[in-house]
């Protein structure tokens, strides 16, 4: 179809690792072009704040990938409906989403999150205890990664000692959220590795579920088993899928939030110094980071009925890419959007989504980041960047592999 080659090329550039360190100029190009619609792929891309906000709020906006025209066609051709098994509740729609989320919500209730605060403080103190001023420090390996991983393992009941076993699997599965097939029409080179990792991780969690049946503890796995036995119609596959989702999310998103905030502040050292002098600024730093450089860059939705977004008709079954990271640099929504400014006041952002799929772990992520950033800046008020960060290949869960500091 005339005029579609250039937009397709624009989208393919999103997959290019050369744009990983700073994808925001590319997002600006996509946003300025307007919605990119590729009818033959049953697919559209939206990048302004108003468009993304409307999609998240729309009653016909679904999250079950199996409802897409592309997935239905693949199943009709004999491909497996869900090659990785039962999806986590994030990738389901009501009523299954509602039922499963309600059970998982128990682990993230305000009283549970608040009760974790002393433990999070102690974990951060332990991670920073032996560091000396002027020493070299990789903030990913030393703080941003081990903190949220320890917390999510504690909540789920996954032994932290097993973390080396499942970290590689989690990293591979995170890449599965990238829109590789959508943009190229082909599976990525890592698909078979991700499939193997996905089956291994589910097997690992299934074994843990079996252990908790005989030895229940105060953790989410035990609570989900108890719910199943109390008649909440939770299958073992659903328990495993829920824990799988939360474990992967705990490995990636809060890691990116903490690291992105540190990078943004050290590129404008006055913000680092201000937080070091006033711990109460941490919340504003976290919210501006969620706007300026969010840990989840994009999401997708499926039209469960025909929709109209910004004058564009989306047929039932078509998929929509929701580019939150682009939306949060939209000059129609924010003044001077490309500037990191924690003092801009109240911020409406989409970093945790909206509607029924709003991020379950948002309060916990905010708490972990607030504690970590306050402690690090207070201990090392003169820290500075020691080199350029190295980014992982991920597009959706964009984040750093290393971020070197001199403390």
Automatic annotation (TrEMBL):
Pathway annotation: Steroid metabolism; cholesterol degradation
One Pfam family from the record: p450
GO terms of molecular function: heme binding; iron ion binding; monooxygenase activity; oxidoreductase activity, acting on paired donors, with incorporation or reduction of molecular oxygen
Keyword Iron: yes
Names of the cofactor(s): heme
Domain of life of the native organism: Bacteria
Alphabetic keyword roster: Cholesterol metabolism, Heme, Iron, Lipid degradation, Lipid metabolism, Metal-binding, Monooxygenase, Oxidoreductase, Steroid metabolism, Sterol metabolism
Signal sequence extent: none
GO biological process terms held by the UniProt record: cholesterol metabolic process; lipid catabolic process
Cited PANTHER family: CYTOCHROME P450 YJIB-RELATED (PTHR46696:SF1), P450, PUTATIVE (EUROFUNG)-RELATED (PTHR46696)
Family: Belongs to the cytochrome P450 family.
Protein name per the record: Steroid C26-monooxygenase
Species for this entry: Mycolicibacterium chitae (Mycobacterium chitae)
Gene from which the chain derives: vdh_1
């Amino acid at each position: 179809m005339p005029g579609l080659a250039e937009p397709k090329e624009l989208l393919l550039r999103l997959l290019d690792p050369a744009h990983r360190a700073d994808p925001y100029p590319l997002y600006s190009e996509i946003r300025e072009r307007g919605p990119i619609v590729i009818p033959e792929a049953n697919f559209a891309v939206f990048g302004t704040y108003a468009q993304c906000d409307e999609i998240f709020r729309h009653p016909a906006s679904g999250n079950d990938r199996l409802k897409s025209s592309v997935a239905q066609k693949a199943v009709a051709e004999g491909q497996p409906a869900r090659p990785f098994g039962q999806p986590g509740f994030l990738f389901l729609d009501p009523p299954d989403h509602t039922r499963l989320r309600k059970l998982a919500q128990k682990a993230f209730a305000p009283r549970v999150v608040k009760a974790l605060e002393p433990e999070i403080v102690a974990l951060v103190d332990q991670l920073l205890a032996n560091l000396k001023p002027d020493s070299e420090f990789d903030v990913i390996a030393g703080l941003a990664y081990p903190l949220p991983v320890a917390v999510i393992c504690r909540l789920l009941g996954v032994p932290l000692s097993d973390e080396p076993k499942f970290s590689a699997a989690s990293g591979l599965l995170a890449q599965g959220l990238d829109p590789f097939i959508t943009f190229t029409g082909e599976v990525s080179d890592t698909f078979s590795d991700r499939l193997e990792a996905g089956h291994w991780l589910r097997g690992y969690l299934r074994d843990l579920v079996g252990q908790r049946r005989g030895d229940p503890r105060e953790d989410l796995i035990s609570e989900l088993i108890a719910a199943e036995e109390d008649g909440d119609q939770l299958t073992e596959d659903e328990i495993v899928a829920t824990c799988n989702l939360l474990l992967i999310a705990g490995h990636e998103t809060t890691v990116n939030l903490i690291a992105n905030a540190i990078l943004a502040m050290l590129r404008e050292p006055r913000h680092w110094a201000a937080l070091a002098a006033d711990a109460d600024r941490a919340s504003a730093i976290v919210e501006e980071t969620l706007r300026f450089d969010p840990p989840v860059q994009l999401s997708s939705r499926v039209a469960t009925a025909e929709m109209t977004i910004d004058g564009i008709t989306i047929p039932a079954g078509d998929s929509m890419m929701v580019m939150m990271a682009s939306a949060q640099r939209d000059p129609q929504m924010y003044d001077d959007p490309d500037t990191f400014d924690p003092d801009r006041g109240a911020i409406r952002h989409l970093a945790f989504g909206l509607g029924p799929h709003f991020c379950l772990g948002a309060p916990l992520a905010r708490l972990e980041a607030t504690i970590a950033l306050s402690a690090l800046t207070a201990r090392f008020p003169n820290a500075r960047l020691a080199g350029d960060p190295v980014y992982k290949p991920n597009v959706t869960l964009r984040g750093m592999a290393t971020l070197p500091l001199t403390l």
